[in-house]
Specification:
By secondary structure, the protein is α+β, with helices and mostly antiparallel strands. The protein contains 1 helix and 4 strands, in the order E-E-E-E-H. A hairpin with a 2-residue loop joins strand 3 and strand 4. It is elongated.
Length: about 50
C-alpha cells in the first residue's frame, strides 16, 4: 500500500499493468484502511480544515 495525507491508505494491486499477487486488496491492507478512516472521522484524532 501507499499513503498520503488526503488519501489515507491506498492499496497497490498492480504496477505497470502487472498484477501483484492475485490483484486484490489483501486483508491487512483492508483492515488498515478501515482503522485509518475510523481515526480520521474521530474528532480526537482529526482537525477539520475550512476552506473559504
Amino acid at each position: 500500500f501507499i499513503t498520503s495525507t488526503a488519501g489515507g491508505i491506498m492499496p497497490v494491486t498492480e504496477i505497470d499493468r502487472a498484477e501483484i499477487a492475485d490483484g486484490k486488496v489483501g486483508p491487512i491492507t483492508s483492515r488498515l484502511m478501515a482503522l485509518y478512516w475510523q481515526k480520521h472521522d474521530d474528532p480526537a484524532w482529526s482537525t477539520p480544515v475550512n476552506y473559504p
